[in-house]
Design brief:
Elements (H helix, E strand, L loop, with lengths): L3 H19 L5 H10 L34 E10 L2 E10 L6 E5 L7 H12 L3 E5 L14 H4 L2 H12 L3 H16 L10 E6 L3 H10 L4 E7 L22 E7 H6 L3 H12 L3 E6 L15 H18 L1
Parallel strand pairs: 3-4, 3-5, 5-6, 6-7, 7-8
Antiparallel strand pairs: 1-2, 2-4
Helix pairs in contact: 1-2, 6-7
C-alpha cells in the first residue's frame, strides 16, 4: 500500500542505490537529484563536459503525450455512478471494437503518467478507461505527478480523499464503470471486460470483479496493497464471488512485510477454481508507475507482457 511504511522502505532502497552510484564517482548533489526524480537514468561520472544532448524522444515506456497517436482515439469523460459523477480518461485503438479495461490508479490518482500507460494498452488493442477514484472529494486535476504526493502538502491533500473511500463505494463504482464501458461504441460487448489496479488500486480490481462478475473476465493487480487483511470483506475473500482470471504481481518489500499473503491468495484462488498467476517481483512497491521514483523498467515491461497474455487468453 502507498503509505508511510512503504515510503520509508522505498527511501531506504533509493538511498542504497544512491550510495551504489556514488561508488562510481557520482557527487552527492547529483545523487540527491536522482533520489528525487527516480525514473531517469543515472548521471554520468564527473569528467570533461560532453556536448549538450538532444532533447529525449518518446520511448516504449514513455510515449510522447503532446499529440494523440493516430492509431488511437481518446477523450475526457464523465461517468454517472450511484454516488455522483466520476471523471475519467478514455482511450481506444482506432477502428473497430475492442475489449474494455478499467484502470484504477495508485494513491496519486489519475494524471498524465496513467494517461500514457492507458494509451500504450489501447495501442495493444483495448478500449481503456482510467478513473478518478477521488471524484467524491475533488475534480481533476488531483496531483500532476507522483512526486507531489510524496510532499507534506500532497499527503495532506490526498489523506481525507482516501479516507472517504469505502469498500462498498468502490464496488458500486466498479459496477458503474463496467456498465459505462459497455455503452461505448469502441467496446466489444461480446467479449469480457478486464480491470487493472496499481498500489491502492490493486484491491479495487477485486471489488470490481466481484461487483460485476458476469462482465469482468480478468483482473491485474500490480504492487497492490491490502489484498489480504483481517477484515470480513478482505479482497482475497472476494475471489469466490468472481468469474475472473487473476494476475497478481507483488512487490518484494510488500512480500517481505507480509510473506504469508501470497499463500493465502493462492489458496483462495484455488478454492474458487480461478486461474491465477501470483508472483513476487524483484522490485519495490510502485515499480510499474512510470513516474514513480522506484519505477523499474525491466520488471514493469515483464509485468506488462504478462498482462497482455492474461487479456489475450481470458477476454
Amino acid at each position: 500500500m502507498c503509505d508511510d511504511t512503504t515510503e520509508a522502505e522505498n527511501e531506504v532502497y533509493l538511498e542504497q542505490k544512491r550510495l551504489g552510484r556514488r561508488e562510481f564517482g557520482i557527487g552527492a548533489g547529483a545523487a540527491a537529484a536522482a533520489l528525487l526524480t527516480g525514473c531517469g537514468p543515472a548521471p554520468a561520472p564527473q569528467g570533461p563536459k560532453p556536448p549538450p544532448a538532444p532533447p529525449p524522444g518518446p520511448t516504449a515506456a514513455h510515449p510522447e503525450p503532446s499529440t494523440p497517436p493516430s492509431d488511437v482515439t481518446e477523450r475526457k469523460v464523465e461517468i454517472t455512478t450511484p454516488d455522483g459523477t466520476a471523471e475519467g480518461f478514455f482511450v481506444a485503438k482506432a477502428g473497430g471494437k475492442h475489449p474494455g479495461v478499467i484502470v484504477w490508479p495508485d494513491v496519486a490518482g489519475l494524471r498524465e503518467a496513467y494517461e500514457k500507460m492507458a494509451t500504450r494498452l489501447a495501442k495493444d488493442g483495448y478500449a481503456v478507461l482510467v478513473v478518478n477514484q477521488y471524484y467524491r472529494s475533488a475534480k481533476l486535476p488531483i496531483l500532476k505527478t507522483f512526486a507531489e504526493w510524496r510532499t507534506d502538502e500532497g499527503k495532506a491533500k490526498i489523506t481525507p480523499m482516501r479516507e472517504a473511500l469505502t469498500s462498498e463505494g468502490i464496488a458500486r463504482d466498479g459496477a458503474a464503470f463496467a456498465q459505462w464501458l459497455d455503452q461505448q461504441p469502441e467496446v466489444d460487448t461480446a467479449r469480457k471486460l478486464a480491470t487493472t489496479g496499481y498500489c491502492m488500486g490493486g484491491p479495487f480490481t477485486f471489488r470490481t470483479a466481484a461487483a460485476a462478475p458476469d462482465r469482468v473476465g480478468a483482473i491485474g493487480s500490480f504492487h497492490g496493497g491490502g489484498l489480504v487483511t483481517k477484515e470480513p470483506d478482505s479482497p482475497h475473500t472476494l475471489l469466490s464471488k468472481m468469474k475472473a482470471a487473476a494476475l497478481i504481481c507483488i512487490a518484494q518489500n510488500d512480500d517481505e512485510r507480509d510473506p504469508e499473503a501470497k499463500t493465502v491468495l493462492r489458496k483462495a484462488a484455488d478454492a474458487a477454481k480461478l486461474p491465477a498467476e501470483i508472483e513476487v517481483y524483484p522490485a519495490q512497491h510502485g515499480w510499474c508507475a512510470i513516474d514513480s521514483p522506484v519505477y523499474a523498467e525491466a520488471e514493469a515491461e515483464r509485468a506488462h507482457s504478462r498482462l497482455l497474455a492474461l487479456l489475450e487468453k481470458h477476454l
